[in-house]
Amino acid sequence: MSQSQSEWGASRVTVLALDRWGSVLVGGGGPPSAALREGESPDAGALRAFEEATGELLEELKLFRDGDTSHHIYYCDPDLDLAELDPPDGTVLRYVAPVEIDVAELADEPRALLTRFVVSSAYRAMFH
After folding, report:
1. Is residue 124 over pLDDT 80?
2. DSSP-assigned letter for residue 99
3. Nearest alpha-carbon partner for 19 in 86, 83, 62, 80
4. Which residues does 81 contact at the CB level (< 8 Å), separation at least 6?
5. In this structure, are residues 17 and 33 in contact, taking their beta carbons and an 8 Å threshold?
6. Entry pTM
7. Which domains does the chain possess?
8. Cα–chain center distance at 59
9. Using CB atoms within 10 A of its CB, is residue 83 exposed (0-12), middle (13-18) or buried (19+)?
10. Count of CB atoms within 10 A of residue 47's CB?
11. For 66-93, what is the mean pLDDT?
């Protein structure tokens, strides 16, 4: 289910977590995302959103600049084992490889974001 800007509120965060092969962790219709809470920094919101979605606390995040100042996008490469994650009931986490983005069951906005990310210099720099 894709959420519009008004449904998310003024600012939101998304975390693109990669495995060692460059696939991106998703659950439901896209990667872990959340609206920022009042007074919450984007960094703290991203860590919270990821922990709520996976049960894992990340140690490091990098900012991916994508042009929308109200959507803070972070990425990292923690290479997490799906079997060790603890998503909310009813959520199935999986990795989506770059070549699978077009056919994966993703909402439109996350699909577009993942497509932009995997062709970016930030993504390429992780695998040089």
Report:
1. yes
2. G
3. 80
4. none
5. no
6. 0.89
7. 9-125 (3.90.79.10)
8. 15
9. exposed
10. 18
11. 93
